[in-house]
Amino acid sequence: MIQRLLLTAIxxxxxxxxxxxxxxxxYIMSDDHAAHGIGAYGSRLAVLNPTPNIDRxxxxxxxxxxxxxxxxxxTPSRASIMTGQYSHANGVTTLNGxxxxxxxxxxxxxxxxxxxxxxxxxxxxxxxxxxxxxYTVLPGQGSYFNPIFRVRGKxxxxxxxxxxAGYDNTHSxxxxxxxxLRWLKQRKSDKPFFLMHHFxxxxxxxxxAERYDFLYEDVDIPEPESLWKRGNHGxxxxxxxxxxxxxxxxxxxxxxxxFVDESLSNEAYTRTAYQRYLKKFLRCVKGVDxxxxxxxxxLEKTGQLENTIIIYTADQGFMLGEHDYIDKRWMxxxxxxxxxxxxxxxxxxxxxxxxxxxxxxxxxxxxxxxAGVAGxxxxxQFQGRSFVPNLRGNTPADWPQATKYRxxxxxxxNDNPAHYGIRTKTHKLIFFxxxxxxxxxxxxxxxxxxxxxxxxxxxxxxxxNVFGSAKYAKIQKKLLKQLDDLKKRIGxxxxxxxxxxxxxxxxx
Length: 508
Fold this sequence. Notes:
Radius of gyration: 23 Å
Structural class: alpha/beta
Number of helices: 13
Oligomer: single chain
Number of domains: 2
CATH architecture of the largest domain: 3-Layer(aba) Sandwich
CATH class of the largest domain: Alpha Beta
Number of strands: 18
CATH superfamily of the largest domain: Alkaline Phosphatase, subunit A
């Protein structure tokens, strides 16, 4: 008892020293955890109370309502977060991309700012995360159970590995949290920490820890209306447009993943596939949330909670049956929207919702700003801006009113045509150019070029494509110009791709 009290006193003293200087930063990121899979975002799934610990962060911090990914797929999103650049600028346009140590900008700059840095969990940027002081990362996607981790050691990357195994099949979410907690407890540095704690879950195929096997067993998960009624959404001339929950996509659908009886009617097949899909997804989410609870408990016990900036986000959104889609990649809301919640009572408001438009390219400058780095010292290659002033209620007058998106990996894996577009607070314009171009891993066979325009004020679920409508001619023209201006500003124009220029002229 005396030893425990002494340890607590020492930790409190150490943390009071930190409190006088820079805060710790705990950056927690899951894989494919859509914002509408978080209770605090108030979707149809909130009634299930799926994320009490994440919801606590939202109550005690700031929740971003309009945070968007610039390329909704794992490796490119992580590259943008690490470099502060769009995909075309950092060169990671598809899953084939990589970020070498000398370009792992966030880690490099955090070390310069006086932080001890660590990367634990899903890395997915192929090359060694050597810019971090400490790392223990999954190889590629990694395994859900008894995972192998690549660690810093004497052997050359990626040969130095450890296996986490247990009698009860250790789940990756538990193993990743165990490693982060061990590092936090054993580190000797008097520097503040910057820990990137990345879960594998709830990436498909949604393998939950065994203790959640019967969670939601007797619950009927609410369905999105667009699962059944797709409206005037998506191109009408493509036989295979996005993988599905239902039998619609015969090549790949969630019924295949969930082993649904093919002899069932389409309605029964769809309903069964959806329920199995959402329950497995939410069971993985529950494991993420419970492990976040473990991290919060440790910070509270060691007196570090109030001096630690805690961020929760995901690498992108995810389609959970909306429009009969699965997976991510789309510029549609559920795929493009990222959850982002940040808690630090000492410097940020409590229970605030920020509706400014933020892009994941803005994450790197924001992290450095939170670490006390002056904007004048930011790397010149950053294409985003810090939104710390926005979090504190001081949104700059010239803050962007639109965000740009681009998916490059044409028709690979989930039958999504390559596309780009612009989203404002009120409208969304998408151009499906349908070409593989020079994107590694993209399919070469083109699909018909096609535009979509959605009035998000009157049609928030994107059910009615109004591109070409006389009523929207003025806003359509304005958005096309905004899109081109934004593409020019960030250096992602079409001129180097003659086929793309031709496709757009045809679609317009």
